[in-house]
Design goal:
Layout (H helix, E strand, L loop, with lengths): L1 H13 L10 H14 L10 E4 L2 E2 H4 L4 E8 L4 E9 L5 E10 L4 E10 L8 E5 L1 E6 L6 E6 L11 E6 L4 E4 L3 E2 L2 E2 L12 E6 L2 E8 L4 E7 L4 E8 L3 E2 L6 E3 L2 E8 L3 H15 L3 E2 L2 E2 L3 E5 L7 H9 L6 E4 L39 H9 L3 E6 L3 E2 L5 H5 L4 E5 L2 E4 L4 H18 L3 E4 L6 H8 L4 E2 L1 H20 L4 E4 L9 H4 L21 H12 L7 E5 L4 H4 L6 E5 L8 H17 L6 E4 L10 E8 L4 E8 L7 E4 L9 E6 L4 E5 H6 L1 E4 L5 E9 L2
Helix pairs in contact: 1-14, 8-10, 9-10
Length: 685
Amino acid sequence: MKRILLTFLCLHSLVFAALAAAPMSGEVATAKQWMKTALLGDKPGGPFSFCYGGKSTADLIGKWNPGRSTRALDAQRREHTLTWTDRATRLQVRCVAVEYASFPVVEWTLWLKNTGRENTLLLENIQGLDARFERAADGEFVLHGIRGDSCVAESFQPYAHTLGPDAVKRFSPPVAGEKVSGKSSDGPEGWPYFNLQKPGGGIILAVGWPGQWEAKFTRGHDRGVRIVAGQQLTHLYLKPGEEIRTPSITLLFWQGDDVVRAQNLWRSWYLAHVLPRIAGKPQPPITQIQVEGSLASWPGVQVYLDAGIKPDICWRDAGGGNTWYPSAGGPFTNKHIWLNTGTWEPDPAKYPQGFKPFSDKTRANGMQFLLWFEPERVGDPNSLLGRHHPEWLMPGNSAGSVLNLGNPDALKWLINHVDGMVKSQGLDWYREDMNGGHHGTAWRKHDTADRQGITENLYVQGHLAFWDELRRRNPNLHIDSCASGGRRNDLETMRRAVPLLRSDWSVTSFAKEPLQVEGNQAQTYGLSSWLPWQGAGVPFFLDRYSVRSYYLTGFGMVQGAPWSQSESKRADVKRGYDEVRRIAPLMLGDYYPLTPYSLDTTSWIAWQFHRADFGEGVVQAFRRPDAAADTLTVKFRGLAAKQRYEIENFDGGKEVHTGSELMGGYVIALPQKPATAILRLKAIK
């Protein structure tokens, strides 16, 4: 145990050193040239569009008063601010763009503000991105991505669409009549990240908008694809002093034909510039335990410590039928009583001293305390918010009302109240959930006909401001993003939070459902191309095949009370925590799928994470329950051909091979089914 922990801590200290997927000089030059041409050139405007008073951007913006400034944000980033102001109506358009010195990345956000004394003209169809991308004469565009989360095994399933002549592809979180999701990574067409491959390279696009966005890819008869992306619905005017914004747009330019390398370049940039930092240090991997209900006391933690398991986080969730907040007076009952939200205080009948004694002891023993909240949904009309501030609530959510974070008074109250809870209860982690369907419906019902989209826009700004202010007031506070699982994980959200539970499919039931384990394997396979940091929880399983299917940078095991009374179960649980600590830092390296994606129980699935800076990596392979073949040949990637590597099998045995041999093919043998192998790779110095 001591050796494992020392290795884990050593890896923690180096975990964000340089990664193998470094950008090529030509890629950085391409990004800079694109920015110079599209954003900083002499032609007025940029890669965005809107209509104002019935006229398009192209007809207007060149006639408005321009402005420009540039400043260095740090050694790696330069920010350019471009403005255009309509002299007649005082509408100001402001584009804030950032370029990177060491990555082929360009990003920007468009802001529109009424600086006058009268309402503006009508603003419509505001698009943060409206641009064409060309290809060479031969070959075709292929659009790569994954599905969003729907709490199904197929969540994060990869796709590849060839965009032939006249092809049109639209993406957004689900809309069905008046039912509008409003969750940014929700549903089969709702993942807000894309990789548009063309002959000789491509462009990765991220739409940063924790709301209802839409992206459209249109292929004409020529050699180009037009991409349009923005808030899905905008048809509004601005009142004096009012300001709205577009989604943030991020483009990464890559060269070559290797899509996997392109995704690893994205992962490298993400780890360097997106993953949240506390005290200047990026979020490291974590392990956690759940302390539900009556176990939200020290004996519930002590059983883990007695078993030799010291987690990083003690997590108090909603609690199902045993909530931590007052919930008895609402419309939901029994196991659904947790939906009666709206009073965010510890239930005095259960926690007369609150959580401070528990959180103090947690930190005194080298751990952190996490508490679950869901402040945006008010499910109990008799709650504190329901009784005292009904004017802040918007109907439309399928499980209550929505707290209007676009209302300055509501936003101020929420910031002060949650900040007070962080301080008074001693919180290290603020976990925010967003349940019920159709936040987007609530937003749109609150709009008037001539102000469509304004509620959502101000709400999104308010939500981001809420998180930013929490972090400003509490610099060491970690934020965990959850929205019925992984349904709000756009880039703006991921800059501020990490997803400790990437999908509720991880814990959709406490008894195995068909494909529940295989679905988690497949979710790791698909999501790892996009989010280097992700978490899941093991629901009551103890067999190695199941538990190893959940190993991620965020890991925990939910166990029933009797587990601690069994020596064999204690050993099984401890093994899970020990193994994930050994490999989780390696998951922040480059990612290589080693088999095709599949949910088929007759197949194998395998992947590799590799840290070239450490000379270490790991392969995870799974022989599924109905797989006939008892061996799988995998070809390692990212190794030095002449370097000798030691391979350690977590189930026993070590071998030595050269990088050339491993990249040529290595046979994994699992005579039993279902079964799994973890192979840790280390360069021999």
